[in-house]
Amino acid sequence: MAGDEFGGRQFGRATAYGAGSQLAAARGEWRERPDWNERNERGWFDKASDEVASWFGDEAATRRRELYDHRGHGPAGYKRSDDRILEDASDALTDDWHVDARKVQITVSNGEVTLEGTVPSRQQKRRAEDCVEDLSGVRHVQNNLRVEESPSWDRNNSSDTISS
């Protein structure tokens, strides 16, 4: 094992990209792309650098930043169905560890999600809304959830008093 190899990584050498990277490098059929990863995506640091550079008028950085920024721009006329939004909202509440959704009903109409029922705390009420708010296709969330009334502490302990 050479001194510049550690854990299968080779430091100090150019990184080879392409089919069978080491084989391609040995044949000279590789190209160097230090700012792109294996999935043709730029790294976080490179993206952040371009963001800051674009603030100061670097047009090349602005082009690179906007080159692959198409997430959320679907086909013309596309509208997510209410049934699909309902399913995603139900999954989001079911998967969240901090929301007890056993007494929550969800309805969806034209992309507007309505939450009804009860939850044990105000935090769960807010979190339930947050869970469904950012789902694809949701235009508005109407949170009609109520916080369950907890039995209040009885100072006089009137349930134990003897009535005459």
From TrEMBL:
Coiled coil: none annotated. It holds the Pfam family BON. Residues 1-33, 115-164 are annotated as: Disordered. Gene3D superfamilies: 3.30.1340.30. Residues 81-149 form the BON domain. Residues 153-164 have a biased composition (Polar residues). It comes from the Bacteria. SMART domains: BON. This is BON domain-containing protein. It comes from Croceibacterium selenioxidans.
